[in-house]
Amino acid sequence: MSPSTVWLLVAACALVTAAIKAAGPVALGGRELPERFMRFVALLAPSLLAALVVTSALANGRHLAVGADTVGVAVAGVLLWRGASVVLGVIVAAAVTALLRAV
Q: Helices (DSSP H) in 1-103: which residue ranges?
């Protein structure tokens, strides 16, 4: 693929993304969303993050696999659940993953 084709594709993706983002405010016209829908929208970001974490922790290419990274994420999840800071959770997850990969 030539560089001009790549940049044309990037520009097209940027335009489509801008159009999708503009469609919501244009369609609503300044009206407020119903409370029930707002509760649903508020849950989208955490569920997407959870899906990304699970996919990263349990996937090995095209297959499901449990490995050192899975254990690291699980340990960090327990720490965060128990009230530890996010920074501590990331550091412990990285340390546990590195230790298990070294073994």
A: 3-28, 35-42, 44-58, 68-81, 86-102
